[in-house]
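Annotators were shown the component list below and the corresponding predicted structure, then asked to write short factual statements about the assembly.
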Amino acid sequence: MAIDQGNLLYYFRNNLILIPTALLFYLFVCITAGFAFGRLRFPFRLSLFLLVLFLMIFPQMLLSMQLFQLCSKLHLTNSYLGLILVWTAYFAPFGTYIMATFFSSLPYEIIESARIDGAGTWKILTRIALPIAYPMLGIIIIIAFQSMWNELPFSLLLLQKMEMRTVTLGIAMIQGQYGIPATVQSAVIMIASIIPMMVFVFFQKYIATGSFAGAIKG
Amino acid sequence: MRTKKMVSGLLLLSLIAVLVCGFAVANAASQVTLTVWDFKYNDPGMHPVMVKIDELFMKKYPNVKISHVGQPNDQYYQLLRAAAQANDGPDVAMFHGARGDTYELDQFQVKLDKYIKPWRKEIPEDSWKVASTNRNFKNGIKLIPMTSQGFGFYYNKAYFKKAGLDPNKPPKDWNSFLAACEKLKAAGIVPITGGTRDYTANFMFRTFAANIFGKNVSGLQTGKLGFEKNAAFKKAAQMMVELKQKGYFDPNGASTPYFMDAINNYAAGKGAIFCGLLSDVANWKQFSDALGKNNVGYFPSINFTEAKSKDMQSFQPVGIGFGVMTWSKNKDLAEKYAEFYARGEGAQTFVAGTGALSPNTTLDAEALGYPVLKDISSYLKKNISEDYQTWFVGSFEDDLIAVTQRLLITGEINPDKFVEQVEKVAAQHR
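Structure shown to annotators:
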């Protein structure tokens, strides 16, 4: 009944299209920007990094109106691309910060020996730094996944077509003006929590290992 | 010769292709999509009816496709504000009648006066007035009213009979109301379903206010009238406390939300009296369908000596309505859509399907065969008192509910302190 009333299967399908795609965008930005801030030297690096940190303080509701206007002007409302870009922009600063902190803690010798062997920046990132960073990637994936799964204000504004809506939006939608019985609502929320829980269980070992990353230098 | 035939054939094929493409393009160009936003579309009771009305409209206007978007109720006006800032949003949007939020978005709503001119008489001027910004016709009519709203007491005739009461004689005055509750309680029937949480007490106060303030409710908003020094309002508070003390409310009322649990409880026969609505939900249709058409009685308020009027019906001339947004590229069609819900086949379908009370006087709701509607109509014809809540912004209701359920009903403050508090709340919202 809960699945039927909430059109949940529909919304699950949308989430499973939208979130993995958004995560790819998000990871690309976090990894590349994180590496740049963590390992490279370029003008205004610290200022830009502080700006990225500064972006983390804005609450969603403060930005939602302006982002909606921007997306509207760029014809990105009612498109998954619009929401993916907004999510990436909003969630990436935290991931970038985590990755930059991790990359900056990598032993200097590892990077230097790779350079001596003729590896360029891209190769160092993909072949040397990234494999070591898997625990950190696990952490930022799990945090971003949960954030995107539970995100409401941006998706509410940007996805106005019923057939495009996400699970969280769907839960908000089934509560009409006068709500629905609490039993149905609880069932819908329980069902909607299954996938985030599974993701958490799958990635939790990375959190455990990632939290100790860099604690021991041998 | 052969080449000639081939060329002719190719030309003919090309011509057909061009014609087909041209027809398709022309057809696509004449196809209009109207986007509609509302906060009702997700309600289980409303959804199938609105889908049906949309289909009827699309049948009437084959070149129109309706994209009906149900928005979450809690974020609805915020979404509309965002749309207004971006100057991009729905063609048609639903609004509450006479609410600050509605009037606040006034500049983004199309004036509908010229559109409604041919059929304006179908809806009373009182409703059109509320549909105009700040109830001033000079600002233009911005809504086409779909429903009227009000509050009153429904009662279960079978339970009345079981308790030894006359099912055709509603307990309209205070003493007979108390006596009825006592008899019901003695018969093992919950006298008043719902009770001490959220809207039950709030709606009951609004029905009492109809008798207390009669037709002069606007003074409450301007400050000419007050709650604190009004002996009848204090008596209303004492009545609420007495009902609670005598155990006439549902014993589980404190933990039962009005929407939809208390309503469903009453529809399931768990109680004899319920303070319900005239439109939307908890209305004449829902209860008659659940409890039997001839089993539901109605009275609008409780009469008591301190109140200056009797049998007054608390009423909102416009419950909800559709407005047309200024950024719409199809304003004429958008207005036709809004109109469709308010008159003719669309309105009739809406009323029959949802139990809404339409302000449109040409609709024959009584033909639907619900006896309780006759009772309601008789009060509406002569005893209307506008619901005082509509003169205040939405947060006034929330604050009043807080004062009522957390302080008065729990015994935290006495009726004297309560009327003082209500006056303070009203002063903050004036």
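Statements collected:
1. The two ends of chain A are 57 Å apart (CA to CA).
2. Chain A has eleven helices and no strands.
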